[in-house]
Amino acid sequence: MKSRLKMPRGAIAPRSIAASPARTRSMQRLTLAGCPDFWRLWSVGLVVFTVRWLETIAVGVFVYQHSGSAFLVAMMTMLRLLPMGVFGVFIGAWAEKIDRRITLIAVVMLMLTTSASLALLAYSGQLAIWHLAVASFLNGLGWATDNPVRRVMIGDAVGGDQMSTAMSLDVGANNASRMVGPTIGGLLLASAGIGGVFTLSVALYAFALYAAFRVRYRNAALVGIAPVFTRIAEGFRLVRGDRRLIATLVVTIIYNLFGWPFTSMVPVIGQNQLGLGAGGIGILASMDGIGAFCGALLLTLFLRPAWYARAYVGGVTIYMAMLIVFALVPSPEIAGSALLLTGLGGAGFSTMQATLVYLAAPPEMRSRLLGVLSMCIGTGPIGFVALGLLADAIGAPWATAASGSIGLVCLALARPLWRHI
What we know:
Shape: globular
Radius of gyration: 22 Å
Largest sheet: none
Low-confidence stretches: 1-30
Helix content: over 70%
CATH topology: Growth Hormone, Chain: A
Order of helices and strands: HHHHHHHHHHHHHHHHH
CATH architecture: Up-down Bundle
CATH superfamily: MFS general substrate transporter like domains
Number of helices: 17
Distance between the termini: 62 Å
Number of strands: 0
Strand content: under 5%
CATH class: Mainly Alpha
């Protein structure tokens, strides 16, 4: 009779041993071990995202309290987006000729200087709405460089096979900032005034500047390449010949025309329809970030290439539907739940947006095509202007609901395009 070999008490079963490398690979995928430059670039993004949301809510509440105009509130966010539409494609082509690390440092310094100037104006009692408008445009110039500069640097640092994971983590940073930025902005505005908001912005930008200086990434500035307009034309020709890129950019335009502008109405709806103060509006706006953070985490852990298109288009669909719910409900609790779901849908869209373009583009044209993507994102100002005017005419809730409804119709009509993604 053959004797059975018994495992000693406390020993690990072989299948557990076999599973260990898989768990290790999963952890390495999640943490991007061995890519310190990614985490430095991620830190810069986290700060820029946080300050963007911190200032967007605080500026929106401040402008509405001093003007009573929903249109002017929408214009503050519109001005942050305008440089993407006007300059995005040029920045994408120009980024191929410069050292991206130096550009990143210069962008952070510009934003730090802008916030410091606003803080000084606020403490001296001279801050006016037009100052905020100019600062929003200048910060928008920095934002327009994010895709063709910082995110191209991320892709080069981690490689194409880990781009989806890197984008999920980067979008997760954006979404984490949407959890804390609006809350901090609203509470600081209520307790320390608008000057306290910009003082915190300066401190955060100082940390981002430190992280940017520590980035070791270098790209060789290309010399002797075609002029900017020639390279822009080459980028558009590539887009025109690739149905995946056309579909991705069309969905981006729909989102930025009819979805994204609703964020400018959160302070208006929060104050007028839901009866909230500055702190309450900040907490309400953070619900979108909480949902988006959870969505980005789930995508980081579980998303596979076969589901990229579903995450992208499905995310926009959920976003549009839930912003309609947010606009029309009378309860802060239900409105907050709707924002939670807009964040969840937005995570799928924002994670896959840059990823799909990056993976579809030849390596030598990634900056150009991400510049084209920035230009498409920059169509958002049209949506902000339209929503602001409509909100002044029929009220912010009905204007927001109409925008979401039109977005859903446009998305349905674009199905022959996005089914190719």
